[in-house]
Amino acid sequence: MSERSCSVPGCEKAPYGRLKMCGRHDYCRRVYGDPTASGVRRAHGEVPRALEAAAVAETDECVILTGYKARPNVQLNGTWMNAARAVWIIAEGDPGDRYVLHSCNEGSGSHGCINRRHLYLGDHDQNMRDRNEAGHIPIGRTDQVGEDNGNATLTEESVREIRSRYVRGARREHPGSAWALAAEFRVTRSAIYGALPGGRKWNHVVD
Fold this sequence. Notes:
By secondary structure, the protein is mainly α. It is 31% helix and 8% strand. A two-stranded antiparallel sheet has the order 1-2. Helix 6 crosses helix 7 (189-195). The radius of gyration is 18 Å and the shape is globular.
C-alpha cells in the first residue's frame, strides 16, 4: 500500500483525511461502520423518504432503516447524524443539546429504530439510565472499550455529540471547548479528548 493510495488494502484511489481513505471507503466507514462494506445501493432520495415516513409513522412497530451494521448515520441538511435524531428534527425541529432517546428495545434502541412514536428527548443522565437498564454495562468489566467498559461514563451517542460540537483550540468559555463539554457531560477533559477521533476507547465509533 502506497502512502498515496487509500489505506484499505487493494484500493489504489487517492486518500484524504486522518484515516487516509478514499471518498467511497470513508463514506462506508461513516455510514455502515465498516469501510469495506458494500452497503445497499439505494435509489436516489430513498433515505430522505424513509426518514420522512418514519417521522409521521402511524404504526407502533419499530421502523428500521435496513442495510446498516450499527445504528444508521445519515446526512440531513449537510450534517451527518444518527438517523433517529434526523427523524426527530424532521418531525419536531432541532432538539439542541438534548438527546433523542428510545422507548423501544429496552430503552436502548440498539437495533436502530427510527419510528417517531418510539423517540423522546432526554438529557445525558437519562441516556445513561436507559443504557444501564438495558443491561449494556457489564459491571466491573474494565478490559473492554466503549460502552462495554464497566467504568464508561459516556455513551456512543454522547461521543458523537461531543465530536460534532468540539471546537479545537476554543477558549475555556466557548461552549465547544473541552472545559465546557467536560462540565456538561460531567466527565474530565481527558474523557472529552478520549472521545475524539483517534481515542483508543472510542475509536470504533463512527461519526
